[in-house]
């Protein structure tokens, strides 16, 4: 189990994006029953909190106690420390399984086996993530070089599954569908730099070298950004299937 986000749990909760209503509308339109959902690798619980508005109960799991400590408390959500591949849930007990920006960290075969164990017949499983942020033609090359150049030695190999939208991760379910969405936000340069500090590669760099690698591009990025907020765009990809 790789835990790459406990160290920056508070920053993660503040500076990471949430997901658009259109994604949840798509998800719910393909979910027949809404008694119990499992949000796997829930992190700070943002997806679980939305699902709780539509399901009688949401079970939310993560391997990071620090991340779960940031999660919103709801009467219909139960948070538990648990790996994705081995949960305490009874068999055939879940109507929906969601994984946001995390399935690339799992043992895919073991996780898919656990999904089949806990899913009720006809349950929905949905996995999604988001690619590299887009800002402006004057800024994007700087961010790409930081992402794929400076930070490359500090990313786990799992990270590159994001770049090909999970194409190499098995998804052995029925009636598979794919969808794309966008998350648009207005951010200052300072906010953007703090978002970069939530990257697992940045944390790994800091552990190895004792300094913040974001400072390597902070001055140049801030100069290109200017004093005003800019619109930033995250491309979100999703795949959804049915567990028979």
UniProtKB/TrEMBL annotation:
SUPFAM superfamilies: S-adenosyl-L-methionine-dependent methyltransferases. Residues 39-125 form the Methyltransferase type domain. GO terms for biological process: methylation. Coiled coil: none annotated. GO terms for molecular function: S-adenosylmethionine-dependent methyltransferase activity. InterPro entries: Diverse_substrate_MTase, Methyltransf_11, SAM-dependent_MTases_sf. Gene3D superfamilies: Vaccinia Virus protein VP39 (3.40.50.150). Keywords: Methyltransferase, Transferase. Belongs to the methyltransferase superfamily. PANTHER family: METHYLTRANSF_11 DOMAIN-CONTAINING PROTEIN, METHYLTRANSFERASE TYPE 11 DOMAIN-CONTAINING PROTEIN. This is Class I SAM-dependent methyltransferase. It comes from Hymenobacter telluris.
């Amino acid at each position: 189990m790789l835990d790459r986000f406990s160290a920056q749990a508070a920053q993660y909760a503040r500076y990471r994006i949430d997901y658009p209503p259109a994604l949840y509308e798509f998800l719910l339109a393909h979910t027949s029953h809404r008694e119990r959902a499992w949000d796997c690798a829930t992190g700070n619980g943002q997806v679980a909190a939305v699902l709780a508005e539509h399901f009688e109960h949401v079970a939310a799991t993560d391997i990071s106690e620090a991340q779960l400590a940031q999660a919103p408390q709801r009467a219909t959500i139960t948070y538990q420390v648990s790996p994705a591949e081995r949960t305490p849930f009874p068999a055939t007990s879940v109507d929906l399984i969601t994984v946001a920006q995390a399935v690339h960290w799992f043992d895919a075969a073991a996780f898919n086996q656990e999904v089949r164990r806990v899913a009720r017949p006809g349950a929905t499983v949905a996995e999604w993530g988001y690619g590299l942020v887009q800002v402006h033609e004057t800024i994007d090359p700087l961010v790409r070089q930081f992402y794929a150049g400076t930070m490359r030695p500090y990313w786990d190999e799992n990270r590159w599954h994001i770049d090909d939208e999970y194409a190499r991760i098995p998804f052995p379910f029925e009636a598979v569908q794919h969808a794309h969405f966008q998350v648009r936000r207005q951010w200052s340069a300072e906010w953007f730099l703090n978002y970069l500090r939530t990257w697992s590669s940045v944390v790994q760099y800091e552990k190895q070298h004792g300094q913040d690698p974001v400072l390597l591009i902070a001055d140049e990025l801030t100069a290109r950004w200017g004093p005003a907020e800019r619109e930033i765009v995250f491309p979100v990809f999703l795949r959804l299937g049915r567990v028979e």
